[in-house]
Structure formats: structure tokens, C-alpha cells
Automatic annotation (TrEMBL):
InterPro entries registered for this protein in UniProt: DruA (IPR025639), Transposase_11-like (IPR051698), YbfD_N (IPR032806)
H repeat-associated protein N-terminal domain mapped to chain residues: 213-303
Organism: Thiocapsa rosea
One matching Pfam family: DDE_Tnp_1_assoc
Record-given protein name: DDE family transposase
Length: 354
């Protein structure tokens, strides 16, 4: 086989089922549904399928990766879209040829440079992947000039957030797609060409702990039997999700479901069956629709006073009042956060990444 004749191309819609079937059969982790923005590729030679790989949304948290980048945790959530995770890589059993894996990885880097922005509207600066040391040594990634930066802590994503217990740690490898990828990702001000959508931030543990206190005095509009989740908890989660860029009840609910058990404890979530539970989308919507808008606005203004020095956490009370519908009810909380305007970036004096 002449490796120079190997080509890589996106998986056609008509081949998706074949791709998933082969992954389910031959990859030790099985097939993987699309996680956020996802691209799937197949490497071929003279029409034969040789290898399959997919690139998906980056891990929300990875201490080894984050330390290597050196970015501020407050801003990393706003830049995760610039990282893609090599979530699956499979050389089909009958095609284990020397240097084939390195060739495929090199081809994927070239394709992603154009395919990703063409499909999703923004570029990539960094690739990441996790290697199980009980099965592999990461040799193919090292051969393709990926950097090993540490190990994961063993937590895994679940449908309800993150696992409470740790599993085997995995090795973390990264591959910059830009000569100044680390500098751009860690710079205090993100270059405008790399921004995508509304700005997002992350909250500290102390901020999570303090949020429910701001809503403690708001009257609960729900009936007694419908109060499975404390009102301050529901409002704190909704406010935190909005501060982190979530828009709409579904997005807020999904953000809440992704919270770790430790984060849920900080929000004072309900303890049941030895786990902290987050409010459902229905509960969040019911509370935000029925809560007293003036009381909510007052609580948000108190938050604003405490965090006014931080533009990213500013709350715009006027915008908040504009979110009240004709009946005087709070229709949603999505207009309360002033940080979503571009001013939180343009007002800073630091020069953008070159």
C-alpha cells in the first residue's frame, strides 16, 4: 500500500450507518453519538475503507489540558469551541499497516483546518484526545507530533452530569493547529476572529455558593406540594446558567444536568437517593414565569452591586425589566445579563492575540 494514495474524506450521510456499525463492532468503546459539533471521517485507499475517526466537542473540564493551555478558568468556557476532541479513532482490523495511523492523523489536521469552519462557522486552534493506558500507549499520537500533557482525574460524563466516583485515569494528548494556539487561548482578550456566538464565562465555587443567598427572600409563587426544589436553588441555577451564556429553558436545563455533584451541592440542590438532583426544565420554566419580577430584579441588583467591578458578571436591571410581559410576569431570565454584549471584551485595554 502506498500511503501517499490514502485519502481522507467526510463520511457521507448515506454511509453514516456503516460508519456507526463498524465502530460498534470494532472499537472497544463502541459507537458514539454526535457530541456537539461533530465531524466524522473515513480514510480510504483505492476505494477500500481503512480507518474511521470522529472529532467532537471538547471536554468541558480537563485539568491537565487546562494547565497546559494556561487559560483563566473564567474564560475557558468561552473558548472551548476552539478545541475539538478526537473522540474515536479506529484502524479497521484488516488494515493495520505501519505508519497508516500517523498518515490519517496528518490528513485529518489538514481537513479540519478547512472543513470545521466551513461546517460550523469558526476555526479550530487545538485538538485533544484521551488514551486509555490499560489498552494503548499513545504511540500513534506521539508519532504524529501530539503532546502528552498529563492524565485525567477519572471522572466521566453521564446523562446526569459527571460520575460521582472516579474510574481509571486516561492520558491526555493535545495537538496545536496554530503556531500560537496556547497564546491565543490563554490571552486575556480573545482575538475577534476566534469569537463565536454570545460570550460565555464560568463561575467560581464561591460564586456558586453565594448565588442562592441573593434569592432567599423572594416569595415562592408555587403551591406547597409543588416545591420539590427550593426556590433560591432554582433561581440561582437559572441565573448561573444565563451568566454562562445559556439561552432558553432547554439550554438552562441541560446546563444544570451537566453540573457535577459537587457543583449541585454548592447550589444547595435537593438530596435524594444519595445524590443531589437538579430541577427539571418544567420546574425552571414554571418558576421563571411565575416569580415576582420586582423581587427578582432587586435580587439581581444586589448581585450587581457585589460584582460590579467585574464586567463579565454585571447585571443590567433595565434590560431585566424589559423582559416582563404584558401581564406583568417574568417571561424569562435571559435578558438580565449585561455581560453578553461585546463590550465586556472591547472595553478591556489588553491587546488581542496577534
Amino acid at each position: 500500500m502506498n500511503l501517499r494514495e490514502v485519502v481522507l474524506q467526510p463520511v457521507a450521510a448515506s454511509d453514516e450507518a456503516r460508519f456507526q456499525s463498524l465502530m460498534a463492532t470494532h472499537h472497544y468503546l463502541g459507537a458514539l453519538p454526535k457530541i456537539g459539533d461533530t465531524l466524522r471521517y473515513v480514510a480510504t485507499w483505492q476505494g477500500q475503507w481503512l480507518a474511521l475517526l470522529s472529532f467532537s466537542a471538547a471536554a468541558w473540564k480537563c485539568a491537565a489540558r487546562d494547565a497546559w493551555i494556561g487559560w483563566d478558568f473564567r474564560h475557558q468556557y468561552d473558548r472551548l469551541h476552539l478545541i475539538a476532541n478526537n473522540s474515536r479513532f479506529l484502524i479497521l482490523p484488516e488494515h493495520h499497516v505501519a505508519n497508516l495511523a500517523s498518515r490519517v492523523l496528518a490528513l485529518s489536521e489538514r481537513r479540519l483546518a478547512t472543513d470545521w469552519p466551513a461546517r460550523f462557522g469558526y476555526p479550530l486552534l487545538l485538538l485533544e484526545t484521551f488514551v486509555d493506558p490499560q489498552r494503548f500507549h499513545g504511540t500513534i499520537y506521539r508519532a504524529a507530533n501530539w503532546h502528552e500533557v498529563g492524565e485525567t482525574r477519572g471522572y466521566r460524563r453521564t446523562r446526569t452530569g459527571y460520575s460521582a466516583a472516579t474510574g481509571p485515569a486516561k492520558r491526555v494528548f493535545v495537538r496545536p493547529l496554530h503556531a500560537r494556539a496556547r497564546a491565543c487561548l490563554s490571552h486575556p482578550v480573545l482575538d475577534p476572529r476566534y469569537r463565536h456566538g454570545a460570550p460565555h464565562i464560568m463561575l467560581s465555587a464561591d460564586q456558586m455558593l453565594s448565588l442562592p443567598e441573593f434569592f432567599a427572600d423572594i416569595p415562592d409563587p408555587r403551591r406547597g406540594q409543588g416545591r420539590r426544589h427550593p426556590l433560591p436553588t432554582v433561581l440561582a441555577i437559572a441565573a448561573a446558567a444565563t451568566l454562562c451564556g445559556m439561552r432558553g429553558y432547554k439550554a438552562i436545563s441541560l446546563w444544570a444536568q451537566d453540573l457535577s455533584q459537587q457543583a449541585r451541592a454548592r447550589f444547595r440542590c435537593r438530596w435524594r437517593n444519595r445524590r443531589y438532583e437538579v430541577p427539571s426544565r418544567t420546574v425552571i420554566r414554571e418558576v421563571l414565569v411565575r416569580v415576582d419580577p420586582d423581587a427578582l430584579n432587586s435580587a439581581l441588583q444586589r448581585w450587581n452591586l457585589q460584582h460590579a467591578e467585574d464586567e463579565d458578571l454585571a447585571v443590567d436591571g433595565k434590560t431585566m425589566r424589559n423582559a416582563i410581559d404584558a401581564d406583568g410576569r417574568q417571561t424569562h431570565i435571559l435578558g438580565v445579563v449585561g455581560h453578553r454584549s461585546q463590550t465586556c471584551y472591547t472595553q478591556k485595554k489588553s491587546a488581542p492575540c496577534p
